[in-house]
Design a protein that fits this description.
Blueprint lengths: L2 H18 L1 E2 L7 H4 L3 E2 L9 E4 L11 E5 L4 H11 L3 E5 L1 E3 L12 E4 L1 E6 L14 H22 L7 E5 L4 E6 L2 H4 L3 H11 L10 E6 L11 E3 L5 E2 L11 E3 L8 E6 L4 H19 L2 H12 L9 H13 L2 H8 L11 H16 L5 H5 L4 E3 L14 E2 L9 H4 L7 E6 L3 E5 L2 E5 L4 E5 H9 L3 E3 L1
Parallel strand pairs: 1-2
Antiparallel strand pairs: 3-4, 3-5, 5-16, 6-7, 8-10, 9-10, 9-17, 11-15, 12-13, 12-14, 18-21, 18-22, 19-20
Length: about 450
């Protein structure tokens, strides 16, 4: 970013902060009037603040100006108007002395519980070029919806205790503002991340063989029956005739067991939801595509021929297309497919259901009890988009490249430094390396902040 471009961007950021102002905890009737203002967090005077300015080092080196504190909202508003920062942050922690230069002198009082979801955690660096900016935003939005469900359904936080914020770039931040979580240490916060990310999840805890009355086998053992000689055994092959056995259900000979998911709360519920979602996806695909995916999940090689693995693949595809069977599986009854042992279901659930249901967030951010997080309502210096606070109900219809755009359509002449494209306000803008083009101010600022163009 050359100096002329930097001055232009800083001036536009300054104009934004002049008109934005700041707000605190508004009343319901004032939400519409206050929605375009910078949102000051609760207990802001107890928090440390940090800023990156459009200084001589920017953007080659980002210099964080930390250890600041504001006694009033007006002090903060004046700072934003006067300095027009590229990035604005505040601490998730509360301190006795937030402006102290040494962390040990601040006097930690507790911290909000925060989650950072970013496209970087969902797509590998090698795969990133294959995705458009809009595609990445859709991916991370889905992860955010899953995390919100965890916080409300599994942890029991009320929706009003959870603040949702678009990061201004490629993700979302979630803030849990509850007195119950402020005293949590790093270890406890990491355990929460492990739970939502399925780290260390033991599938066997949810799989249970329920013994049918009259059998000599204990609960928890997997029972099978030979269809030819009716021998009950624990083996895949009948010890009498050698033929393949099937899991014994309660419709058997009065003794045996049926495999099911026993705990339908928390992760038990999620495993079933992920499994049925996968089965519906398989049923909706073409046969060749379905078989290929099922072989991958079940560990069956393409050249394995018509063996036991191939039979399992065909049987599972048959069940996926049987709505009644999928409905029973959705109630936790996993004995719908003959020959599917506990180990097979364990593999399927770990590969498919967990992948579909877990939520990927940045664990170090959540575990850090002294983290700086972006200020809602501020601008992101690498995109020019608003760090947009949202109501949970607003997430479904929220479109960042429509709703978080801070600037208008005034024409700006730019020279492209590299190929770049973005879709804003329903229109797509693209520039090629070396090209001189006239684009709306909102797109120009995005290209400038991304280092893709300079002003003429």
């Amino acid at each position: 970013m050359n100096e002329k471009t930097k001055r232009f961007v800083r001036r536009k950021f300054g104009e934004y902060y002049e008109r934005a102002g700041v707000r605190g905890k508004e009343k319901e009737k004032d939400k519409e009037k206050e929605k375009d203002k910078v949102k000051v967090p609760r207990d802001f005077w107890r928090r440390e603040w940090g800023f990156v300015l459009f200084d001589s080092h920017f953007p080659a080196r980002l210099v964080m100006r930390r250890h600041k504190a504001f006694a009033t909202r007006e002090e903060l508003a004046n700072y934003l108007r006067r300095n027009a920062p590229a990035h604005a942050y505040y601490s998730t922690a509360l301190y006795k002395n937030p402006a102290a230069a040494k962390m040990s002198d601040k006097g930690w009082l507790g911290a909000d519980l925060i989650f950072d979801l970013d496209a970087d955690h969902l797509v590998s660096e090698a795969e990133l070029p294959k995705f458009s900016y809009e595609d990445l935003l859709r991916l991370v939005k889905r992860e955010t919806e899953k995390l919100l469900d965890f916080l409300v359904s599994d942890f029991g936080f009320r929706e009003e205790e959870v603040e949702l914020v678009f990061s201004g770039s490629r993700g979302y931040h979630l803030h849990v503002r509850s007195d119950e979580v402020r005293g949590l240490g790093s270890r406890e916060r990491r355990e929460i991340v492990d739970y939502v990310g399925a780290t260390g999840l033991e599938i066997d805890r949810f799989l249970e063989n329920r013994t049918v009355s009259g059998g000599e086998f204990r609960s928890g053992e997997e029972l099978r029956r030979c269809r030819y000689c009716n021998k009950i055994t624990r083996r895949l092959a009948c010890p009498v005739c050698g033929r393949e056995t099937a899991i014994l259900t309660s419709k058997g000979r009065g003794r045996g067991g049926s495999l099911r998911i026993s705990n339908l709360d928390g992760w038990g519920k999620r495993l079933l939801r992920g499994l049925t979602e996968f089965l519906h996806e398989i049923a909706g695909q073409g046969e060749e595509e379905s078989l290929k995916e099922l072989k991958s999940v079940l560990g069956v090689g393409e050249g394995d021929g018509v063996g036991e693995g191939e039979k399992r693949v065909r049987e599972m595809l048959k069940i996926a297309k049987d709505e009644a069977a999928v409905e029973r599986i959705g109630r936790g009854l996993l004995d719908q497919i003959p020959g599917f042992s506990k180990s097979v279901w364990r593999e399927i659930l770990s590969k498919v259901a967990v992948r579909l249901e877990k939520s990927e967030s940045d664990a170090p951010v959540t575990a850090d009890t002294k983290r700086l997080i972006r200020l809602p309502g501020s601008l992101h210096g690498k995109s020019s988009l608003v760090v947009k606070p949202l109501g949970i109900a607003e997430l479904k219809d929220f479109e960042p490249l429509e709703d978080a755009v801070a600037f208008g359509g005034s024409p700006v002449e730019v020279r492209a430094l590299r190929k770049a494209a973005v879709k804003m306000k329903g229109e797509r803008y693209e520039v090629k390396e070396g090209e001189v083009a006239v684009v709306p101010e909102c797109a120009a600022l995005y290209f400038f902040c991304r280092g893709a163009a300079e002003i003429l």
